[in-house]
Design a protein that fits this description.
By secondary structure, the protein is of the alpha+beta class. It is 46% helix and 20% strand. It contains three helices and four strands; from the N terminus they run E-H-H-E-E-E-H. The protein has a four-stranded mixed sheet. A hairpin with a 2-residue loop joins strand 3 and strand 4. Helix 2 crosses helix 3. The chain starts with a strand and ends with a helix.
């Protein structure tokens, strides 16, 4: 299971969290993963890193200062890479 957690607290919201959420949703759609039970996209309230927002956590890996332009790279490396690694364990 890969859990993408995006901070949508006040500070991250002001720094563009909704655009980051939209970018992750677009990557999920683009890769046909909308109904993948091994992938979960959730919002979270403040994670205490307000100066470093927008904060995104993928499982235990934390990313700071995330912008929509950075989402593709993060998604390809940490989500698609993680899903392909997980599939090796299930075969």
């Amino acid at each position: 299971m890969i859990k993408i957690e995006i901070c949508v607290g006040s500070s991250c919201h002001l720094k563009g969290a909704s655009q980051v959420v939209n970018a992750f949703q677009q990557e999920i759609r683009k890769n046909g993963l909308q109904s993948n039970a091994k992938l979960k996209l959730v919002g979270s309230f403040c994670q205490g890193h307000c100066m470093d927002g927008v904060m995104v956590k993928i499982n235990e890996q934390v990313f700071y200062h995330v912008t929509p332009e950075k989402v593709n790279n993060i998604f390809n490396n940490w989500v698609l890479g993680g899903l392909s690694d997980a599939s090796h364990y299930n075969s």
